[in-house]
Every structure is written in structure tokens, then in C-alpha cells.
Description:
Layout: E1 2-3, E2 13-14, E3 18-24, E4 34-36, E5 42-47, E6 53-60, E7 69-72, E8 76-77, E9 84-92, E10 108-116, E11 134-140, H1 147-151, E12 158-164, E13 171-178, E14 182-195, E15 198-200, E16 203-205, E17 208-209, E18 218-221, E19 223-224, E20 228-239, E21 245-254, E22 258-261, E23 265-268
Antiparallel strand pairs: 1-2, 3-14, 4-7, 5-6, 6-14, 7-13, 8-13, 9-12, 9-14, 10-11, 10-13, 14-17, 15-16, 16-19, 18-20, 20-21, 22-23
Signal peptide: 1-18
Pfam families: Ephrin_CRD, Ephrin_lbd
Membrane topology: Single-pass membrane protein
Amino acid sequence: VSLSLCLSLSLCLSVALSLCLSVSLSLSLSLGWTAYPASGWEEVSGYDENLNTIRTYQVCNVFEPSQNNWLLTTFIDRRGAQRIYVEMRFTVRDCSSIPNVPGSCKETFNLYYYETDSVIATKGTAFWMEAPYLKVDTIAADESFSQVDFGGRLMKVNTEVRSFGPLSKNGFYLAFQDYGACMSLLSVRVFYKKCPSVVQNFAIFPETMTGAESTSLVIARGICIPNSEEVDVPIKLYCNGDGEWMVPIGSCTCKAGFETDNGNVCRVWEFDLC
């Protein structure tokens, strides 16, 4: 199950194994994120690798030293998730392709998050020091583009995924820090993973959220399907960090007078008197 946060960070459901709050910069509407200072990140219309018009955030102050430009999303409700995944698609200009660029030019940026129980950051009151935020990682480009590439519309789009947790408050903000790159942020997809509801060994297991760590195993208790009873107890499955079920323990079986139908259904036993 995926939850996308599209432009307003509202949730929408799609068929998948991750619940996605996806922040897609793909429409012509303003995203309403907060940039500081005003000379840093800028929201503009641009093109993706398929030449579709999209809204992007870009920054390119490579000739000015000591850059510290912040871009802050709106508040994101975590919806009970303990671990969050962030997929970023972006382009970065190759510093060596910029004539007379100083040594302060970068091809990386930093990803941070700030966990909170309420909406606190607005255009008038935002935290712009690094202290309130927790750093997720420094994000580097696998591929960068030159002016020749850009002029010919040959975009080299990078996709990077990072995760963080455990989370315990109602939601969080994401922050992107530029400190001297020439880059565009094309899209941000924020999601979490869960194991889907499943019937196994004649038992029903509920949809289960993954744990706080990528290596976590979350126990889900099973309930015998109608017309069945426990054989081994306890009946449980483990949900791993990738949203996959594993390590089944215990099982149910059809009660007397009932028989298996299609593996996980118990129906009245039918017999021929002839």
C-alpha cells in the first residue's frame, strides 16, 4: 500500500506494499515549502527526463562562498509509522564543467528531519539552525551533468533512498540543506512499509506495520478462519523490515465435519452415499 503526499502532502492509497506519503513536484501548482534564505532554494517550472513540465526546487549559488541554504517541507503526519523512507530524484551540475568555479562548489546536499507533535514551522517561524534537526545522510550524485548535457536535454537524474527512525511523535518535517551545489530537486517520495493482511495455515493475520529498524521483526497474532480450530499455539507470523511475512509458527486445521477447499477455506464435508 503506498501513500503519496503529492503537492499538499495529503495521503492517497495505491496498491503496493508500502504506504506512501509521496511529495511529487510534478504539477504546476505551488508546493508551499519554506526556503531560507530567500537567495537560496527557488521554486521554478522545469522539465523531467521525459520533457514533462514539473515544479522543481533548484539552487545554484556556486560562485558565492559559505552557502547554507535550507528547504523545509510542510508537516508530514507519520500515520503510526515507526520508520520512514525517503526517495529523492534530483540532478546535479558537474562542478568541473563550470568555468572559473571556486573550490567551494559541491555536488552533494544534506537530508535532515525534525520530529514534532504539532505544526510549528511556517514562513514566519522556522528553525534554520542545524541543531533542531537530525541528520539522515549526505546525499551524493552518482551522475552529474554538464552545460552541454543540459542544453541537449540529456538529463542525468539521480535516485537515492534513505530511511530513518524510530519515530514516536505525531509527525515530522524534512529539510534539505545546500552548501554550495548547483542542483534541482525533481521529486521526493516519503513512504513506510507494512505487511499486507494474509491467510496462511488456516489463520488470518492482520495488516501489520513494520518495526522501527530495517532489521526489526514484528509479531502478528493469527485468528483461525471460520470452521477451523488451533492445532499448535501460539499462531503467529513475523513481519520483517521489507514488509514481508516470514517464520510462521503454529497453525489451524478444519474442525471435524469440515474439509479443506482451495487450501485456506473449511467447508462442510460432503460425501456420496451411492
